[in-house]
Amino acid sequence: MFSLQDFKRFLWRNGYLLIGAAWLLTLAFLVDHYWSYYSSDQRVIASIQQHLRERENKVQSIVLRNALINQLLRRSYDQHLLDELDPDRTGIYLFIFSDNWETFWNTNRINVPSSALQLSEGSYYLQNDRGNFELIKKNLGGLYAGEKTLIALLPIYESYFKENKYLQASFWGEPQLPPNLYTITRSPTSFPLYNREGQVLCYLDKQPSAIVHQQAMLSVLLKVLAWICVGIFLNLFASFLSAHSKRWHGLIFLIAVVLLLRIISYLFPFPFHYREFSLFNAQVYASSSVLNSLGDVLINAILLVWIILFFRSQYQKAKLPDMNPVQTYGLAVFCSFALLYLAQLFSDLIRSLVIDSRISFDVTNFYSINNLYSLVGFITIGLIIYCFFFLSRTFNEFLSQLHQREFDRKYTLLGAIGLIWLLFHMNDPAIGYDLVLMLWAIFYIMMLDLIDYALQKKWILNPFVSWLLLLTLSTTAILIYFNNQREKDNRRLLAINLAKPQDPDTEYFLSDITNKIQRDTFIQQFFIAPTPVTKHILVNYLLNTYFNSFISKFDIHIFTFNAGYQPLFNNDTLSYSAIRSILLLKARPIAGNETSQQSAKLFYYETGYNHYHYFGEKIIPQDSNPAQPGGYLFYELTPKTQKNLAIFPLLLSSDDNQFQLNMEDYSYAVYENNILVYHYNDFPFAVSISPADIPLTEYEFRNEGGYSQLWYKAGNNRLIVVSKRNRTFIEFVTLVAYLFLIFLILAGMYRILYLLVKAGMKWDHLRNYMRITLRTQIQFVIIFTVVFSFIILGISTISLFIERYHKNQQDQLTKNLSVLTQDIMEILDQHQLLSTPDSTVSLTESTDDPVIRQQIFKVADIHGVDVNLYDIDGNIQLSTEQLLFDRNLLSSKMNPEAYYQLHMQNMVQYIHPEHVGKLYFLSGYVPILNHAGETMFYLNIPFFASQRELNQEISNFLMALINLNAFMFLLSGLLALFITRYVTGSFTLIAEKMKNIRLNKTNEQIIWNRNDEIGMLVKEFNQMVRQLEKSAEALARSERELAWREMARQVAHEIKNPLTPMKLSLQHLQRAIREHAPNVEELTLRTTHMLVEQIEHLALIASDFSAFARISGDHKELFLLNEVLDSVIHLYQNDEHHLLIYDSPDKNYWIEADKTAINRLFNNLLQNAFQAIPEHKKGIIEVAIKDYDGKVCVMIKDNGTGIPDELKSKIFFPNFTTKSSGTGLGLAMCKRIVEQWNGRIWFESQWQQGTTFYVELPLADLSAYNGNMPND
């Protein structure tokens, strides 16, 4: 047992850790309570009040700038002034009126309240759908004639009618303040907000249910560092206990303290309020009361790794005591069961993290894992695997000792225990997985033993890389399996949702409209004296007031009946009894305030997939007797057959989905009575299926042609098929790269922490422990060069990629604007709206308004875009997404910058970025001119798809780049090991020979066959050895007796003259490298020349892969495939030794792709075909082309040597080649080019008979070009 003096010495040496932790916690306390602005409610209110006051002063300064006001009133402002008044910069929504005419506005995101102009001058509190504002009204009389008014809206708290990832509430200017911490109210509280005149605008009310323990990130960092210091102190004290007492005392102390602190952290906010962070959100992950969040799993994994590593540090070399056979066998059985149980336990934990959470581990989609949860999830899995690795190694070492290294007995026992283990899981539905897991556990133990055996035999110098590869490959297999299970579960949910075509968001909006219609008293005026004219007025009123947002997506029919159930001027023959029969017998009420069949006012019924109807009803009371019905109003909404592909609905989507799928990866089809009724995406589904294809079970997964298909029997003779391309290989390679890097980083962090603990946090000691050898330096330089080149390559390529992508998007938007402008001008011209001499034309005043809207909506739907149409004063006239305006997501005014460019600068087109909430997009504007060349309207197309598609393209590129560089990284690691062993081995050999030099024996020379710098060193060494032998012989002949000692001393002195500077030079070289001397380059030149050559060789390989990574083929164009084939084949037709057969087709095959890349593709394939034919053989190369199902297929067949079966699976791999020269990138490039343009490439080959390559590409849709074809 240690003495009190020992304990005092320990505290004296390590007490600074506790003192440092105390100082860090003190600084964190000061940051939280005195530095951070939300350290108290008063600071929060003061910050909000300050931001409000600054903007009030800004408004006042604008009012006082007469020249500026004049510019705004006369619309003579410029771009600089628009930028100055930008609301994203100023936080002010500014509006200028001249006699109720809005002459200036600086935003299109909010409307001025209609009652604002009737208010007197002053400051007001405003609350609406968009949040809470201060409204400032200023009368600009005096210098200006007429009634001039300035209205400014200063947002205090901005919100939306619903929230999702794009629409999120926030306090203006307070991005770190949680939106649910305070609410704004007019009821007095302790936290008032004042306007500039000192009057109370509103009050802030703190929510008792909200999280109030806000902490600055600096404070959290200080607290984490403090507890790391405490942890290091506890670890040192546990080691102190083990050294001065029994070893298990230190282990028990550490486990007890860690468990006690962890239990306290579950019961109380200890060591700080960390559960406010999103990592500890149970909605992200929770599986039990112990593992109730991702953060808890991370903390528990860190603590478990800590305890296991401490245990191994104390018992790593411990040997088991002598035991009798019964004890030995019992402990061996226990260790075997423990190994299998650990494999099952940690596998179930990883399964829970993957399947039972909202954390994405799908590495095939970069943006799905580009978040904190996925990063922490991978780190947590890495820690879990390390826990398993250290524990399994411990139990395996015990097993090896118990079996006295007799591995046959050991594996026999493991197999027997595994069979018993399986017996306990016989009723488990996942018995197949349990069997594979048991076999893997035995294989894993065998690999651990094999690595240890190789280390003993010195086949490997360091087992770390071998362990890392074993863990990486094993974890990759587990993650792929569980990812696949999760994806299948999500696909089942997708199939279930596809079986029900109705949209919850649409039903929500329709329910709201139905409630409003029930309260509308204007409708009943028609039933007092119904006429065709009043019926037309009623229909227009309903369409414009309530259904404007749905005209683009639904066909809307209005039915009216009198009290006697007779139709009132209906355009449809549907009778009252037929409608009532549908509502009572076929329809179901939509959930709302009234859900019974009798009291419901909104119904849904389905006649087939994507053929469903919404019915609404309003009973009109009699004027004389309101209790009796005076008429009936029904409205029917039927979805249009063409689906609008615009992305505006993203703003209206909900975030409450329990699964998130990238629909671009999926294709699906719906069959009714075995006939295809609907399909999505480009998978070639059959138009009908036979009864034999129908699955026997409700769900059935099938793998066909590289695709995984889910067949779901939804009932009512409806079958859903959801197809997804298999990407297992890409997922495997990417996961290997990710996990290997994570394991490497975790090992590096542990090494750094270990050295800090070992050095006692003292820099001098740390420098001694961190001495870097020449071997480590060379390895670091090689790996760093590869990683750095990968980073530079990725950044530069992605930057160029994004730039080109944005250019392509702008070109596409310009094309859409051009086509739509012509179509809409034709529609407007048909209705005499482009020949009106008036300067302002209003669609709402046109008697053809519903017809015009229907026609424009149809055009927009055909082109798959959203359309907004503004008059020349910037007022919205028509929108295919009217709901955005109805819900105040957009104002009724045009974007002010676009209005300035088109109306005041007379630009013919303007494209710029815009945003609604956090959804950013490109938006294009063009003027619509009448026959006299005068502007009548402004057309706007918001191009929402750009950012999402860009993310998808970058994700695909990054996956390819990561996969390529994963091989590069592994190759560089192997080369680094080889080169360092080669270079340092040479120095080691020379050092050993120098150490063995003796004067009294024949010294061995070094054999070195290369004429390099090391060879020069060896040459001088051998010369010295030969001189030594000659001198010794001369000494023996001239001095035999008395002069022997003197002559020997002289000869020895002469010999040492060249040896000493050689030794000193080597020592100086080592010291110069270690101390980074300024002349280190000169001293190491001779020894690093070979290293430079190897690095240059690596650079050449990296250059080849760089070229492979940059074949993205961004230049998309329409061209004839026939011309490309004719051009390529012409190059090879004059070959005298081979026969090229090609019949040019009569039909033209137009495709959309990069013409240069396609030329390179067929050039490469033909060159491979010619090279595959032996010199002694007459070559016959056949090229054929055919089309089917909207695709064209090119066949290139040769009679060469063919491809052996064992090499077929690797033929498209980078760096693989069957030839004696070349980089092996040709076919890999071909595959990348074909897949880049949504095609596929495959081959058929027989050894010594020949090979046939097939290239399949989609044909271009020529209807999209409207006859604007390139010259044939």
Polypeptide structure, described:
With 1272 residues, the chain is α+β, with helices and mostly antiparallel strands. Among the domains are: 37-206, Beta-Lactamase (2-Layer Sandwich); 504-652, Beta-Lactamase (2-Layer Sandwich); 662-726, no CATH class; 803-952, PAS domain (Beta-Lactamase), CATH 3.30.450.20; 954-1106, no CATH class; 1114-1265, Histidine kinase-like ATPase, C-terminal domain (Heat Shock Protein 90), CATH 3.30.565. The chain is built from 31 helices and 31 strands. Strands 1, 2, 3, 4, 5 and 6 form a six-stranded antiparallel β-sheet that branches. The protein has a five-stranded antiparallel β-sheet with strand order 10-14-13-12-11, with helices on both faces. Helix 6 runs antiparallel to helix 7, helix 20 (774-830) runs antiparallel to helix 24 (945-995) and helix 20 packs parallel to helix 27. The chain is globular and about 140 Å long. The protein starts with a helix and ends in a 14-residue tail after the last strand.
Which class of secondary structure composition applies to the elements? alpha+beta
What is the distance, rounded to the nearest whole angstrom, between the alpha carbons of the first and last residues?
A: 96 Å
Q: What would CATH call the class of the domain at 37-206?
A: Alpha Beta
Strand fraction band? 15-25%
Gyration radius, to the nearest Å?
A: 39 Å
Helicity level, as a percent range? 40-55%
- Number of extended strands: 31
Q: What is the residue-averaged pLDDT?
A: 81
Determine the number of helices (DSSP H or I, runs of at least 4 residues).
31
**What ranges have pLDDT less than 50 throughout 5 or more consecutive residues?**
593-598, 1040-1044, 1050-1062, 1087-1102
CATH architectural grouping of the domain at 37-206: 2-Layer Sandwich
Report the sheet with the most strands, covering strand number, pairing sense and barrel closure.
Answer: 6 strands, antiparallel
* Shape field: globular
CATH topology of the domain at 37-206: Beta-Lactamase
